[in-house]
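[recover] target loaded
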């Protein structure tokens, strides 16, 4: 999967179209950004990421006792890590916020449990992802805005989302990326990748467990 523009720096560094070709658009309008629990947002009026430059507000999200807000962040090496680390510097947040990193799906359950327990929590996520089916923006959590857009490596893109404000991350399209030589040798696969799409409404629905059914004894 190739997120555009998030992964463009990695793609160009890997040789661009000469090595890897981006084809089709699997999912359109994927969002990313920072969220906090709605309980704390309503109680404090925190709306912007930059509000956490205030040591007293940042301290609300302190987990390890060092006085800084703990941000459940991005997995090391992912594209979102570049943006988060850049923004912590660009918005002057190093003294009051630190990114809590590890395997994303190893650390995010802790954020979910904290919010369920009513504790102030700051985290990064993206859509579509099952996390937002549990921590629902506007219900359990709210998106934070940024006052101005600052992105690494001259990255560009629209970061303002109607009804949500400036999330600080460009809206992305998720494309399929594959070895250019292989794509040229497999035109039918290339055509399939160009055509296939997953509507974002479908990709964000919670999957319900279906009842067990007896395995058929004949092939259809």
């Amino acid at each position: 999967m190739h997120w555009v523009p998030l992964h463009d720096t990695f793609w160009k560094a890997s040789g661009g179209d000469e090595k890897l070709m981006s084809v089709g658009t699997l999912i359109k309008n994927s969002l990313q950004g920072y969220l906090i629990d709605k309980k704390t947002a309503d109680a404090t009026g925190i709306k912007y990421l930059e509000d956490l430059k205030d040591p007293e507000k940042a301290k609300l999200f302190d987990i390890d006792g060092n006085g800084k807000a703990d941000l459940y962040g991005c997995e090391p090496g992912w594209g979102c890590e570049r943006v988060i680390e850049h923004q912590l510097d660009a918005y002057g947040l190093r003294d009051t916020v630190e990114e809590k990193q590890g395997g994303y799906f190893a650390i995010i359950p802790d954020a979910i449990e904290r919010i369920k327990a009513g504790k102030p929590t700051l985290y990064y996520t993206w859509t579509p992802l099952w996390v937002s089916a549990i921590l629902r923006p506007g219900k359990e959590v709210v998106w934070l805005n940024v006052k101005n857009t600052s992105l690494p490596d001259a990255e560009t893109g629209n970061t303002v989302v109607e009804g949500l404000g400036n999330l600080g991350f460009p809206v992305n399209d998720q494309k399929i990326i594959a070895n250019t030589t292989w794509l040229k040798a497999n035109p039918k696969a290339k055509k399939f990748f160009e055509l296939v799409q997953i509507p974002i409404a479908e990709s964000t629905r919670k999957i319900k467990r279906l009842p067990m059914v007896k395995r058929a004894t004949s092939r259809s």
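[recover] notes: The CA atoms of residues 68 and 96 lie 5 Å apart.
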